[in-house]
Amino acid sequence: MHRIIATTALAFSLLLGSAQAEDRPTLEIVWPAAGSVIELGNDAEKAIGVIVRSNLTLLPAGKCGDNSQCGHVHMKIDPDGDSCNIPGRPYNSMNSDLGGDLIKARFGHCPDAAGKHVIGILLADDHHNPVLVDGKPVTALVTVTTK
């Protein structure tokens, strides 16, 4: 009897722990895949689309209301520096105007648009603050080569 209760308690705690882990905000870059070679757009911004996936609802900034499972993303190309940012901005792109899972990467702002780059995505709340898990921002990175 004690063994059945202990087993049931263990199973319940594993299920509870699993449910709590799934509630933690997640973020991943679906496209482009790591190591991809990507042809840049023909426009002045040499833009490509980046597709992300999150378990948060991605809406325009200011549209989440009371939904704490909602936000948007900010993107930097080569996030260790600021050389690819839009002039005067601390990022290269964000989807705070439209929301959704598509974000525009503007390689034309980089000193060298063609070459090896890191695309970094940050999950932000309705007020542009980083979403934190265990005190760390929720981010996703992928390294690509552009041509």
From TrEMBL:
Where does the record locate the signal sequence feature? 1-21
Key words of the record: Signal
Q: What is this protein called?
A: Uncharacterized protein
